[in-house]
Amino acid sequence: MGSYVIRRLGQMVVVLFGATVVLFAALFVLPGDPVGSLGGDKARDPAVVAELRERYGLNDPLPVQYGNFVKNLAKGDLGEDYTQRRPVTEILAPKLTNTAKLAVLAIVIDIAIGLLAGMIAALFRYSFWDVLITLLTTMAVGFPSFVIGMVLLSTFSVKLQMFPVIADGSFNSMILPAFTLAILDAALVARLMRGTMLEVLKADYVKTAVAKGLPRRTVLFKHVMRNSIIPVVTYLGISFGSLLGGALITEAIFNWDGIGLALVMAIQQQNNPIIIGVVSFGVLVFVVLNLLVDLLYAVLDPRIRLA
Amino acid sequence: GGGDDKGNSADGGVFRLGITEPTAIDPFNTQESEGTLVTHNLFTGLYKVTPDGKLIPKLAESATTSDDGKTWTFKIKAGTKFTNGEPVDAESFVRAWTRVADKKSASDVAYHMAGIEGYEDLNSGKTDKFAGVKAVDAGTLEVKLATGDFEFDKKTVHTAFAPVPKAAGAADNKAFNDAPIGNGPFKIEGSWEHNKKITLVRNDDYGFEKAKLAKVELTILNPNNTATLEYQGFQAGTFDWARMPTPQLSVAKQKFEPKGQWISADTSGINYLVAFNTNAPLNTPDARKAISYAIDREAIAKGVFQGMQKPASSVLPPSFADVYQEGVCTTCVKQDTAKAKELAEKSGLKPGTVLDFGYNTGSGHEEWVQAVAQQLKDVLGLEVKLNGKPFKEALSEQQDKKTAGIWRSAWGADYPTADNFLFPLLATGSINEDPATGKAQGDNRGRYSNPEYDKLLDQARATKDAAARAALYKQAEKLAVDTDQALIPLWKRTQYRLANTAKFNNVQMDFFEDPNLAEISAK
Amino acid sequence: MAELSKTDEAVDAPAEATEEKAIAAFEAPVERGEPILQVRNLVKHFPLTKGVLFKRQVGAVKAVDGVSFDLYQGETLGIVGESGCGKSTVAKLLMLLETATAGEVLYKGQDITKLSGRALKAVRRNIQMVFQDPYTSLNPRMTVGDIIGEPFEIHPEVAPKGDRRRKVQELLDVVGLNPEYINRYPHQFSGGQRQRIGIARGLALNPEIIICDEPVSALDVSVQAQVINLMEKLQDEFNLSYIFIAHDLSIVRHISDRVGVMYLGKMAEIGTDAQIYDHPTHPYTQALLSAVPVPDPEVRENRERIILTGDVPSPANPPSGCRFRTRCWKAEDRCATEEPLLAIPTRFKGQDTPAAHVSACHFAEEKTVLAV
Amino acid sequence: MTTSNLTEELPAQRKGDDETPVLEVRDLHVEFKTREGIVRAVNGVNYSVKSGETLAVLGESGSGKSVTAQAIMGILDSPPGRVAKGEILFRGQDILKLDEEERRKLRGPKMAMIFQDALSALNPVFSVGNQLGEMFRVHQGMSKKDAKLKAIELMDRVKIPAAKARVNDYPHQFSGGMRQRIMIAMALALEPDLIIADEPTTALDVTVQAQVMDLLAELQKEYAMGLILITHDLGVVADVADKIAVMYAGRIVEQAPIHELYKRPAHPYTRGLLDSIPRLDQKGQELYAIKGLPPNLLKPPAGCAFNPRCPKAQDICRTDVPALVPVTERDGAELVGRASACHFWKEQIHG
Amino acid sequence: MTELTKSTADSGTAEPAAGAATATANAEPAVARITQWGEIRHRFVANKLAVVGLVLVAVLFLTAIFAPLLAPQDPYHQDLTNTLADPSSAHWLGTDALGRDQFSRIIFGTRIAVEVGLASIFLACTIGIVIGALSGYFGKATDSVLMRIADVFFAFPLIIGAIVIIMAMGRGVMPVIISLAVFSWPTVARLLRSSILSVREADYVHAARALGAGTSRIIIRHIIPNSIAAVMAYAAFSVGGAIVAEASLSFLGVGVSPEVPEWGNMLAGAKDFLGVKDYLWVYPSIAIVLTVLGFVFVGDGLRDALDPKLR
Ligand SMILES: Nc1ncnc2c1ncn2[C@@H]1O[C@H](COP(=O)(O)OP(=O)(O)OP(=O)(O)O)[C@@H](O)[C@H]1O
Ligand SMILES: Nc1ncnc2c1ncn2[C@@H]1O[C@H](COP(=O)(O)OP(=O)(O)OP(=O)(O)O)[C@@H](O)[C@H]1O
Ligand SMILES: [Mg+2]
Ligand SMILES: [Mg+2]
């Protein structure tokens, strides 16, 4: 198991390396000078541009720039951004926390709604509730998150004023964005849960559990739940990527100061250090999360041997 | 929130508004309206500017100019202090300006000092002293300019010219960057919480008429849709001042104008089309005129902007009353399809000609740009290629020597001088081509170059008499914008704001389009 | 059938020549009663690996560990043994679906274990297989016609294109299915019918040997008999040789001419059906036979049953010496140290008794267990 | 609280009164609603088991053996399945009339079941100790620790070596035979009055099968439980059963004490089954095979369900469903415990 | 529609025959031929949602093909004198900020949706199938290398990766298609790989090898057909996802050029009219939702229909 983790970490480094190389290459070929201008309509003073190019090593060839990036990364240094000239880590740290808060709440909502809905649908198969849940989850898959976000915002914040329009970091202001972020995954979790649970319900060991005279809740929450949740856990690990992508739109709609938003802005401004920082971080989290999921998987399912 | 500040006292109250994250609030690099709002309230310089461009002396008790316009001597008001107790004297200006122009600062706004003697050396790192700026004594600041400029005093309203205390240190002093110590009507509470908020509180030791508001809360909003958020925030009672998304303006006006909460002003800026003068197809004045004639500004203003934008027929804005010439661009006054076609024919701008039309994306230009493109197609039969680019790319493309056609652009004044429009946008010296890459590094991206025009500008600058100077500027504008049609004005810079007049008195939009925080008082 | 000495005919000729020779040899007919397949010391170890980046082998599953036997033209050789003892692996090795770790499989005198390419394809025409599970061994997305016709597509020389459909229909007829079913899909058939399809596919290339890996285990008792009857009929008709793997001893006895008993990767005992069933000399065979439930309540009261204790040891870590010793009631010290060879036990050597057949036990003796 | 009120109402005896069966199934009908239509999987099954007695239920795949068992245990897949008709009397009381909670309390302490494939019948994600101990925790309110001790005891009882060391292992870590023994241990845990074993050894090797069947038979004797042994292996049946019920297409087609059935089957299907087993004297001959295919329960043939495959079928077989009638000797003397559902049972049994 | 109802009836009668065939095939030989496709179609058609999805998708396709005939006006035609007009009989769904007829734009929007949705998923599937098949069949080093490459692309959130590519390539339909494909193929590859891993060891594959079938034959005839079902269902499902992603890109201002009638563009232009001119974003949203639902239903239906276990 230790060696498994080491191997996975090795793979992780490979993936991270690949991802940053791809990203570097892509950014390098982007037309436009990343320090060539400011946000406004006015051009930057050429002297300033030269000074900044020098300062950020933008005159170096790509491999050198990448080498420097890796060297600094090893020290936990992601460099300085091009507009505010502040350390990227410092800029991103609070945004990361914000996105993480949102993501965690979203995942909690995912799991809560998804599992519950999936369970109800599976247990009362073909009932009114099942049909309703199936319909709702399919709808949720069909609704783009920006449409959902806009509807929620205009209804609950602007019209009903139930939630603050301007996110202030409070829990209250997290609810709508987290919900927007969660809704797609919650629907997919519900569908997944319904499917696996239907299968698990048919399994012989569930029959055994019933035949043992266990109360229904023990059968459901012990024997059925534990087995049905395994694919859901895997899914949640994979879905993190889409969560980050979704955060981009959700954060933009709800003014949530997270890395998704930072990324959109950074891309518009070619603020490369931020782009690289966010994407590397996203990839890292994704890979780590998947490793954790695999480990968790092994905990949940003793049949899995990690090797 | 400010909900509990209902007391009727004139002093006090919390004013809340939304801004986007400023690039900087340290005067060495303050640039856009957001940062300017903060820096202006943290620092007080030589002069203050009224919304219509008039100077009001602040620290400058008097200013004298030599006849050649090269030497300026400012008498500094004695006895005012920075909030850390350091005195504000001539030395604090020398310190500040040197700090801005220093190479190591890599300040984006240093170029405003480019006219001062010794700037080059300082900015290229040859020296760390600013030769042209001298504190003769504590109360006297002497500035030597490389070329005569009778409007230098007006330039000093830019935040870059604000004094700083010794505590400022070098430009990369992060502590000062985030919590500048100033001498303005407000001081910062704590420090800048990036992407979250900036809180200003009244400076009770302010050397001039003190502010009335106890506190100003600036919430930093998502730059992607600030206007929407501000507007929604205003409606929800979260903000006392707000911009609005253009599409909502007409509805907002209907709703808030009757309440007296609607503020509008034509401010110091211009929206125009850069026409690339050196490359076909727009390398003749006639071709450019044809384009200008073909555009129905009125229809777009009405149809697309719902009447919330006004067509412009000059480069200089109406707020510069002494130089403003309504209708100086004759092609701008009214769409004239016949003339447009005629001029197009004459200049070889045949139907089917490809015309590149560039604009930067994500800033709400998509709509009207399409309308203009359509009109050019309809009237001249041009094949208009819309070319939307993110900002950095857009800029880099505009700077390119080979770029042809038109680009959407806009200009806002840094200070109330005609020169601040006419030089950067149209002077040959402002092309500033990079010999290596051929890129136009200045703001004259259309690469308009007319020696006659340059001469007129030089003359104007060297003219001490304000009226005569204004006349020369007018003449220059007419030459570039009418005769040569170097660029194509589209609409004025008209700004709308919502202000919570139910709770506050005397809320106005200042020269920089920000609320006049220092003068607002709670009801 | 005497000692199984390793044949010295191992061919050292250049590969190309061997191939040609091999192909030629496969065409040559073999008389009934001659060995058509000789298996010599066949070994298959599946490596157990471990490692971070570079895998290193930490052991091996000794699935088949030195198995030898002959198969004669036209006969049925039954192979029985407990689950996991390596029966299927032997089948796969004979089918060249796995590469042998060591040993030889001589088909008409030619070692086929190292063949590849054209020669391998040529052998495959002659050795075919019927799988245990009729549900998984037919591609669910192909029609019966395509499934049975696939051999012809792979070996176009067997049947000209225009002829194929007719041939397929003939085959269907041979295995007792309605030739009109040619366009149906496997899921439209019952288990017994599917197994017939599998047999038809195996027959398509006119093979000489068919290896049946538990062909009836998945079938219901009432259908099982139908398939067994069919197989016997086909054997007579086409002079086929069968290797018939099963765990149902009564079926094996019914169909086989000779029977081999496997235990943990090794052959424990081989002999004619009568020798094995009526005169078993290996204790494992005896236990196996006695454990078989007899469908006759009269017998159950008065028969001795040998109930083995313990489980089959893991093939990754087999016991030393005799592999059966951990469960054997006769085991002595010698069994742990000395591996018994598969040979006619010394005490029966030269005797003319049915007990005089090869058996890998140091203490081989006859014991009457009830016949199935 | 683990004992239900119900248990007190039930006759408390176990070994005593041999005449009341532990379990009696009367005219049981089970059907499944599927998209294709209603599958009548069980069509009027009657059988009974007494304490200490072993009833073997025989019949080919799909004949409704398991469904009957599931109906008795109350673990039918429902929906789509439901008991359409009939009674299941446990010690005289119709358990179909009990509410779910009362029925639940019967499962485990009163009746238990062993499934065919122990690997899939044991929950893969819990240790066997946990799953065994659960019986005691749920039904007897035992503490976790005690339950585990009990689990070890049980594992010892079913002869799992090093039970103590292996109690925390997971099902996949055991061999097939051991798993099945764990299933048996689980069923025996609370010493129920009735055990239903649904093909308990089909998935096992002969030698292991013998071990397991031996163990089961031994324990059954010891606890004097009623055992319903479901199988389609005639060999297994012959080894352990006292009486046999043969099922075909959801019906019992023949019932008989064990010796009788093998000697003189009274139904052509039973005859066919017995004949299709290879026999020594038949070597080299063609095996007897029941021709045709098992019936489709969606559209069972009219009349006797076996008629399309029956060598002796007459017109009446294609129209009238034969009832399960007592079988008598040629002279009319009663054959205890024998019955057949064939119009021509007389011809069948008496040649 | 008549077509559909008819085929329902057809297979409705065919089904019992199939059942009978399985059961009593020996008895009566003359049974109607039932192909696997017939079976799949039957299962698909029996699924009401799938049929609804199919209808939605069909409507979408027809609209895309016949857009010029269906649209009452030129979707590019601006009428600055009639901007932001509420829905009326002249403009059923109102006009946008440039006075263009929204209904016509929505109709023409189907073209981009179909184009981008299908092309990107087709491309993603092609790459994914090739890589997944190679990876799954050959295993070992090939598998490791290909799967690490897939991981790299998989780890990029789709939208983010797409934005970067579009930035590099410029705006337009092609870059959108390519960028969506570049970041979606790993899912296809993984899906295919895992089903191949299970199919690879299936008995019928062994059987084919025993017959002497070569690698390509085994992959093409046996492995792919049996493992492609999941990919097909996923593909149908993802077309919807691609359409949403494409709209999201336009919404974020990096999609196709804004004058192009495209739903995401319409939404991007309309988002500031929230609460003022709601019809501007409601109708394009509905168009997106219905389209996506259509593909989702079809994908779901396909998945169920292709899975013989699900009944
Ligand atoms: N590919 C493989 N890798 C590792 N071990 C294997 C492999 N295939 C088979 N084995 C092992 O080899 C041994 C023999 O397996 P084999 O399938 O030949 O047994 P069998 O006698 O056919 O059993 P059964 O009666 O269950 O079919 C088993 O222990 C099995 O686990
Ligand atoms: N959940 C279900 N849905 C529909 N039909 C079912 C279901 N469970 C069982 N059946 C049907 O009931 C019939 C009887 O099944 P049952 O499992 O009792 O057979 P069995 O005699 O136990 O067979 P086997 O020997 O294969 O275990 C079968 O035809 C089967 O198709
Ligand atoms: Mg096997
Ligand atoms: Mg069963």
TrEMBL record, chain C:
Signal peptide span: none
GO molecular function: ATP binding
Annotated InterPro entries: AAA+_ATPase, ABC_transp_ATP-bind, ABC_transporter-like_ATP-bd, ABC_transporter-like_CS, Oligopep_ABC_C, P-loop_NTPase
Highest taxon above the source species: Bacteria
Matching CDD domains: ABC_NikE_OppD_transporters
Domain called ABC transporter: residue spans: 37-289
Pfam families xrefs: ABC_tran, oligo_HPY
Keywords associated with the record: ATP-binding, Nucleotide-binding, Transport
Family assignment from sequence similarity: Belongs to the ABC transporter superfamily.
Name under which the protein is recorded: Dipeptide ABC transporter ATP-binding protein
Organism: Streptomyces bambusae
Classification of source organism: Bacteria, Bacillati, Actinomycetota, Actinomycetes, Kitasatosporales
Automatic annotation (TrEMBL), chain D:
Residues in coiled coil: none
Region of interest (Disordered), residue spans: 1-20
Subcellular location field: Cell membrane
SMART domains reported for this sequence: AAA
Principal localisation: membrane
Basic and acidic residues bias: start-end ranges: 11-20
Keywords, in A-Z order: ATP-binding, Cell inner membrane, Cell membrane, Membrane, Nucleotide-binding, Translocase, Transport
Membrane topology note: Peripheral membrane protein
Source domain of life: Bacteria
One term of GO molecular function: ATP binding
Domain annotation ABC transporter: ranges: 25-274
InterPro entries noted in UniProt: AAA+_ATPase, ABC_Ni/Peptide_Import, ABC_transporter-like_ATP-bd, ABC_transporter-like_CS, Oligopep_ABC_C, P-loop_NTPase
Family statement drawn from the similarity comment of this UniProt entry: Belongs to the ABC transporter superfamily.
PANTHER family: ATPASE AAA-TYPE CORE DOMAIN-CONTAINING PROTEIN, OLIGOPEPTIDE TRANSPORT ATP-BINDING PROTEIN APPD
Protein name as it appears in the record: ATP-binding cassette domain-containing protein
Native species: Streptomyces bambusae
UniProtKB/TrEMBL annotation, chain E:
Annotated ranges, domain ABC transmembrane type-1: 110-299
PROSITE patterns the record matches: ABC_TM1
UniProt-annotated location(s): Cell membrane
Pfam families: BPD_transp_1 (PF00528), OppC_N (PF12911)
Membrane association type: Multi-pass membrane protein
Keyword Methyltransferase carried by entry: no
InterPro entries: BP-dependent_transpt_permease, MetI-like, MetI-like_sf, OppC_N
Stretches for region Disordered: 1-22
Residue spans crossing the bilayer: 49-71, 118-138, 145-167, 173-192, 231-256, 281-302
Keyword Membrane: yes
Keywords from the named record: Cell membrane, Membrane, Transmembrane, Transmembrane helix, Transport
Biased composition (Polar residues): 1-11
Biased composition (Low complexity): 12-22
Family the UniProt entry places it in: Belongs to the binding-protein-dependent transport system permease family.
Protein known as: ABC transporter permease subunit
Species for this entry: Streptomyces bambusae
